[in-house]
Design brief:
Layout lengths: L2 H6 L12 H8 L15 H14 L13 H11 L3 H21 L9 H12 L3 H11 E2 L2 E2 L8 H25 L2 H6 L16 H5 L7
Antiparallel strand pairs: 1-2
Helix pairs in contact: 3-6, 4-8, 5-8, 7-8
């Protein structure tokens, strides 16, 4: 099995990640400074949107934000090195829909969109009702094929559905990449690369002050 397929099989969008050495190596290779980062897969404009979205999903509190541990760089590199061509096309189309929706809703200049506006659009897409979610999922994919954005009459609805798909894709990817980053694993989560005696009866609060294990 080739490297791309092996990594893809333990992907980051399922809500569960196997922290394999190969995947962690890819994650730890993303160390570019945000100010000088040039995306490999996304355009610079899309990279700006990606950075803002992941920082709404995981903002800076008493722990770093997603962008501070290079989650945008990792997602961009993961798509380039791991995703198959058909999935890369899906990411391109969904990100284009998200960018179009942001521009039509707030500003044609992405740099002018505020954190509050990003927070609004993330909340809108993560908190949709069951009926609305079903409708958006139906419009994202028709008979297994991604919807077309060529028809101007349907463009607004298409952008809404594609933005919904992109933000929901990013939700799990961001969380999993964040949890598996070196800084979070070693400095925020409970980290013990050489564990001692197993104690199945002790509480998490007693063992790690309530922090989950990073390994």
């Amino acid at each position: 099995m080739d490297r791309r397929r092996a990594l893809r099989n333990i992907g980051l969008t399922t809500g569960f990640v196997v922290a394999s050495p190969a995947l962690l190596s890819l994650l730890q290779s993303c160390t570019a400074e945000q100010a000088s980062w040039i995306p490999e897969f996304f355009t610079p404009e899309e990279g700006m949107v990606l950075t803002n979205i992941v920082d709404i999903i995981i903002p800076k509190t008493d722990t770093p934000s997603a962008s501070e541990v290079n989650v945008p760089q990792f997602i961009d590199k993961y798509i380039v090195e791991v995703e198959f061509e058909e999935d890369q096309k899906r990411y391109k189309k969904r990100m284009a829909g998200l960018v179009n929706q942001l521009k039509s809703k707030y500003s044609q200049d992405i740099a002018d969109i505020t954190p509050e506006q990003y927070e609004e659009i993330v909340a809108e897409n993560l908190k949709v009702s069951g009926d609305k979610r079903a409708d958006l999922n139906k419009r994202i994919s028709i008979e297994g094929n991604e919807i077309s954005m060529d028809n101007a009459e349907n463009e607004e609805q298409d952008n809404e559905a594609l933005a919904f798909g992109m933000i929901n894709d990013l939700r799990w990817t961001t969380i999993n990449a964040f949890k598996n980053s070196q800084k979070i694993g070693e400095e925020v989560l409970a980290y013990d690369p050489v564990p001692g005696v197993y104690n199945g009866c002790a509480s998490l609060e007693e063992l790690t002050q309530g922090r989950v294990w990073s390994l």
